Predict the 3D structure of the following.
Amino acid sequence: MSIVKNKPRIYGLTGGIASGKSTSSKFFKDKGVSVFDSDAFVKSLWSENLELIETVNKKYNLDMKTKEGRSGLAQIIFNNDLERVYINSLVHPLVFSQIEEWLETKKDEDFVIIDMPLLFETGYESRVDKTIVIYTTKKMQINRLMKRDNLTQDEAKKRIKAQIDLKSKAKMGNFVIRNTKSYDHFYNQLELLYGGLVDESWF
């Protein structure tokens, strides 16, 4: 008797800040793969979830609907470990709940991808079938982050430090895509991975 695999297969896509994860996510979306974008959902929470907005406003006196408010919260999160844990305790359950609802609508698909920066940090890797880690060097992370978000080197390092080191994530991942050379090299690796996921040869 053959064993029928559960559908869809769920892959967790993660990496470090400014590692190339968003580029990878877009690559899969362009291929027609259903991708849950955790970053985008969290961003929507800060403009739509009134209970969350009010909670943060009362505690920190920050208006999360403004750029200044969001910037102020970022400063708190990346400069205070306890405050970061507190904010995450408010946000993560909402993300997990939304993912479960989303998965209910994807039962007919062969595989889906959950794009989550803090996949390992939250322990969510236990809820996916296999993990994909986008890897780059810390030096490249710092340089990209400084350029992308107009940060100082110290600010960039604090944001990177708030996540598990990429070398450690790479050791924990089932598939590791290196983004340390040219874009074409990076893209070709994603193509190879996509081919393996489609025909299940790497499942």
Observations:
- Residues 81-104 form the longest helix (24 residues).
- The chain has one domain: 9-197.
